[in-house]
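From the pipeline queue, job 12 of 40. The input is one protein chain; the requested action is below.

Action: predict structure.
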Amino acid sequence: MQREKPGSSLTFRGNDADEFSEILSRCKAPARVEALRDAGFSAEYDFVAAEALGVGRAAYQGGLRFHQKAEDSKFLIYVPLSGAAMISSSNRHHVSEPGKGTIIDMTSLSDVVIEGDREHLSLIINQNEVVRLLSAMLEQPISGSIDLAPEFDLRLEAGLAFSRVTTILATGLNDDASLLQSPAALSCLSTGLIHLLLENVPHRFSGALARQPALPSPRHIRRAIDFMQANLSQPISIGDIAQASQVGIRSLQEGFKRFKGMSPMAYLTNLRMEAAHRDLIMANPATSVAAIAQKWGFTHLGRFSGDYRKSYGCLPSHTLRSGHSVGADGR
């Protein structure tokens, strides 16, 4: 059974190969699904398209084979949770299993075979967006294929971070759809995920990316902060900030690290936390903490409350109840 969900989303529950083929064709690229055994298969699949990427969540039982190839350039990335999948691509074969991320250029994908129980998260990323961000990071246009390595270790620090962000995207786009209501957070997560790939998975431009950029002057940092202040409630990315400050992304990152002791996006998060704090002080007590948090791009209420308490010494609900009696330090 298939049904539409809000936000360019689709879901499938069942064992009909033709129906599942239709769903996958609409989500990714023309696809054909076939059962490998007389007993067939069962599938639970959710997919949401948002920003420059799509996020899928799947659970399978039985045996099935996917035949799928995209005409335009897209990366298919698997983050396995359990079980294995055999992937064939351009005369190469990969085993997708827990602890190992797999990156496939969908123009060269042949098929994917799953036998037994399997759960995974998947990402579809438009290669044009990856090229755009990489060009901004290198501060120069690039041409040709990126040639991302087909596998990366999900057990290392960067891999664990990639898995966590993918899980947040899958949860925030599927379960409560909170990220669809918070474009600022969605944009930051999507861009951050691509940066994690480019900075930690080997590719043709890794050497150029590793070279130390020139540091921007404090004038450029001031421009960046002014831009952040003027667009706090908007879904701005690090690329937007770099463009406004008239330096490249890497230069901006190094400059903030030197002059502010943190990344540009961490600084932006602090500014948004301050804005949420001001709103909590001034708001009518009937206003919800969740509404204020979401306004400023915080979609995970528990994490927002914890970070707020670290900054202001009390929970946001206390500030909201206390209103104008709360001091500048939150107490």
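Job complete. Confidence is low (pLDDT under 50) at residues 1-6, 324-331.
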